[in-house]
Amino acid sequence: MSDTDYVLAIDQGTTSTRAIIFDHSGSIVATGQKEHEQIFPRAGWVEHDPAEIWENTREVIGQALSRADITRHNIKAVGITNQRETAVVWDKTTGKAVYNAIVWQDTRTQPIVDRLAADGGVERFKPIVGLPLATYFSGTKVVWILENVEGAREKAEAGDLLFGTTDTWVLWNLTGGTDGGVHVTDVTNASRTLFMDLETLQWRDDILEAFDVPKSMLPEIKSSSEVYGTVEASSLLREVPIAGILGDQQAATFGQAAFDQGESKNTYGTGNFLIFNTGEEIVHSKNGLLTTLGYKLGDAAPHYALEGSIAVTGSLIQWLRDNLGMIGSAPEVEELTKTVDDNGGVYFVPAFSGLFAPYWRSDARGALVGLTRYVNKGHIARAALEATAFQTREVLDAVNADSGVDLTELKVDGGMTANDALMQFQADILDVPVVRPVVAETTALGAAYAAGLAVGFWETLDDLRANWQEDKRWTPNIDADERDRTLRLWKKAVTKTFDWVDEDVN
To answer: Which of 106, 276, 326, 420 is most buried by its number of CB atoms within 10 A?
Structure first.
């Protein structure tokens, strides 16, 4: 390995696709990024165009290579990380999606969830797959496409359709698409479908039968770190091995070097996702968390995790910008919050897609409570930021209860960690220090690490631990009585979102 050798990570996220090139120290060398359209056909429906995502992937690879002034010969491996539960179904003979990608935030499949839950409730498959029946996961999205797209069921039964989350879609296209594309996913993404057995790490035939999804559609399940194939001949990265796949939240955990039992991280992105490593033990939550795969390196034993998933955090700030026009750019929200001393008694519960962990209430919808004539847009902006911290506190309480061990500090990453006001309030409301690493792009870094390990670019996990460096630490600075008061009011506000959706409201 020379000083001009690198690993490239493709981060196919909810709002954009990025290519980031990392050196051996885990530092960023160059980045390419392009946003894709957020498609909202109806209330509760969220879609992406898979063709646009693939085209953007190719473009950002070119951007990153150009900005680094290097070629494919300098790239030793490619890793992929992705928005996990977003489902793509495509025709393997044409290479075209039969419908837009249905995004993890989409709630249209609630009738399918209800139908499946009629026999055994929402936890019908949870002992096997670690997940409750919910619109969040990709399994019901596949069912919706098969039942609502003309000709899809027939093509699927004939073996002509493929399903994958966006890691699989990008991998299939990168490795040739209709000309020999590799149809594979890793254990972390497979664990978010509702179809994979946590113990065997294989698709469950009986669950697929219950969903009425042909097994021929599904990708082969592989580890998170091994060579899946090489990039096809027409690409700027031709012949480079693709050697790592991790769902975005697991990738961020890996990038934070939280490899061992008891270690955790919280990512602040479109949504928030707290992952707690439970080692080689499968821990079933009693407090509304998900049991999921943390990572699996080659032939080694898998590591499992508990996860607290929050649907709306960063996307709430985008909503203030795009839907209300309160701010011109996301960073402006911090300036707006500085115009007020507190939230003015306002609490904002952003249950736009229902409530995820620890409540799992699909009938919930967003609520802004505590409004008086005194309240201005500064208070609303502050309440929107505080909502992220409050939701994280509730998830962390659940993690502490399930694990039996109280977390002593929280490692954080993602775009919102640049907001000092939010991070300080997060430390205040958690009553533990909050720590941000030097490299905040831990999602892409984790995918790079997984790929680099597979090809010997990094030798051991200790090499990766040595790369982690603290950038900033926030410590609690709030009166305990004030913390308890605001938490009590937050929990009261959450109850106001329940039972909103009924037969006449969607």
So the answer is: 276
Nearest to 273 by CA among 306, 309, 247: 309
DSSP-assigned letter for residue 477:
-
Q: Phi/psi class of residue 325: alpha, beta or left (left: φ > 0; alpha: ψ in -120 to 50)? A: left
487 is written with which tokens? Answer: 């938490």
How is residue 100 annotated by DSSP?
P
Tens digit of pLDDT at every position of the chain (506 positions)? 667 899 999 999 998 999 999 999 999 999 999 999 999 999 889 999 999 999 999 999 999 999 999 999 999 999 999 999 999 999 999 999 999 999 999 999 999 999 999 999 999 999 999 999 999 999 999 999 999 999 999 999 999 999 999 999 999 999 999 999 999 999 999 999 999 999 999 999 999 999 999 999 999 999 999 999 999 988 889 999 999 999 999 999 999 999 988 888 998 988 888 998 999 999 998 888 999 999 999 999 999 999 988 888 888 999 999 999 998 988 888 899 999 999 999 999 999 988 888 888 888 999 999 999 999 999 999 999 999 999 999 999 998 888 877 788 889 988 889 889 999 999 999 999 999 998 878 899 999 999 999 999 999 999 999 999 999 999 999 999 999 999 999 999 999 999 888 766 55
SS3 of the chain: helix, strand, coil, percent, to 5? 35, 25, 40
Annotate 219-240 with DSSP letters as a single string. PEEE-SEEEEEE--TTSTTTT-
Contact partners, residue 485, CB within 8 Å, separation at least 6: none
